[in-house]
Amino acid sequence: MIGVSLSRWTMSYFTVALLALLGAEILMVAGFGYPNHAVFAPQTIALVHLVAVGWLSLLMCGALIQFVPVLVAKSLAHPNLPVVALILLVVGLVSLIVGFLDMAGLSVGSTPWLGLGAIGIAAGFALNVWNLGRTLWSARPIGLPARFVVLGLLSLMAVVSLGSIFSASLVGWTTNDILLRLTSEGIPLHAALGLGGWLTFTAMGVSYRLLAMFMLAPEDEHRTSRFAFMTGSAAILILLIVGPTCLLILGQSVAHPMLIALGLATVSLSLYVQDMRRLYRTRRRLKIELNARMAAVALGGLGLGNLLLLLVTATGQTDRRIGAVVFVLAFGWLTGLGLAKLYKIVAFLTWLECYGALLGKRVTPRVQDLVNEPRTLPWFWLYFLSVVAALAAASLEAPIAFRIAALGMLIATAKICFDLVSIRFLRSVPASMLPEGDRAWPRLFLPRLQHFQR
Amino acid sequence: MSDENALVEQVRQALRGVIDPEIGFNIVDIGLIYDVAVDEGGIARITMTTTTMGCPATDYLRSGAGEAAQNVEGVHWADVRLTYDPHWTPEMMSSVAKEYLRGNR
Fold first, then answer.
1. In the list A145, A326, B20, B69, which could disulfide-bond A205, CB 3.0-4.6 Å?
2. Mutate which of B55, B70, B72 to test chain A, going by most A C-beta atoms within 10 A?
3. Is the pLDDT of residue A440 over 80?
4. Which residues of A touch B19 (CB under 8 A)?
5. Do A3 and B22 touch (CB under 8 A)?
6. Fold adopted by B3-103
7. Complex-level ipTM
8. Which helix (H) or strand (E) holds A159?
9. Owning domain of residue A317
């Protein structure tokens, strides 16, 4: 199989993910969670999971079910399994958040919401990991970008396992000493593997290929890319193996493995940024598109987040400042990159749905004709400037200023979402180039199954 | 120019009506068409590639090239073969396509 099909459920994942992002930003504007509440307050943990699972992980899963087949030139092993996974993930996430609200004092009955949430989320991710894992396995030997994804999926399994243990402990389903110890001291491992191993390392792997594709840059494998993979993998394996060993066998804290992993991750990220700079420098598409320009800004967010993490670790202010660092990594880096790539991917998928079958039969627009970059660009700038303002407000412990900055993020995100909907409805396409008849028009977020039957 | 060569040129011209949607330029000038031949029986044999192996647009590009070729008078059927040997590189683009990507068109 050389060509791969359109993923049927990617747009559904993207839609739910964007709703979760908008929901999280509304909560931040309302003063819910960090910095109005403590970093480890149930409100903050609910918000963090809405962002990490609802937004970032669903976005990543939606992208992977479309692009892992592209990375390895094999069709997805089970094309319809992602919709079952999505339902489980959404139900699990809602239960988990209700469980955290219960911990925050909001009475929601005696149902063990946290435990049920963990079961739903673990089952949903397990189905996606199985599906993507089988696809990758069938394509051995795999290239470097796909190997990043494998390590990312391994991290995801670890994150979900730790999260499930935490939930089981918190609802009283286990009183095992080892699991309770993991629950009380394993949160840094859970967070680092989630934000670093799963979300960042996977995004790195996918961006090696996607940015090269979209900018027409040479995809040659460089020594820096291999070292970035090796050092990043070493960081993940230290978190996975040495962290729990220190905690459970040696009876020590996870501080030392975390420090070593941070050092290795910094080397990996530096090499990755160097590779990305080379991609931008050697691109054939000189007129740079919005998605690539905003991805570069997001890379700046990654650099800033890593620098701040080193700084707060070196000055011993991790407990006080970690919230701001996680904020810039989640919103400056991952969300910035996610929104930028969505702008391109949604247009590309919409084009394939509407015009793929018309190629050779009539004049078709370009993917670029589906977007209106000058209209959307200012809102990306508003988004990034608001993130910087919110970071400054969080660092200065000014909650009101943070909420005002979060409002800027919310307005910008809402407008970008509106523009994504406009892309789906072909609002920028000249009338003469609109597809004829109802059948060719896309649905907003559900597949027209007959489009995908070959 | 012989009739056969004229027909090959007409097929190439028809293929210029098919664009790579992502790059936004026709597949001939991008360098995706490796070879075009037309048999005596009016069968167009096209060898082509895509910019990326595994691209979701691959099947559409292939059938689009076939549709365009079959619309040429004298072509009764088009046999479109995909190959990744050699892999496409940006160097394969014509000067017109390179100019387009520099943003000058």
1. A145
2. B55
3. no
4. 359, 364, 366
5. no
6. GMP Synthetase; Chain A, domain 3 (3.30.300)
7. 0.91
8. helix A144-170
9. 289-442
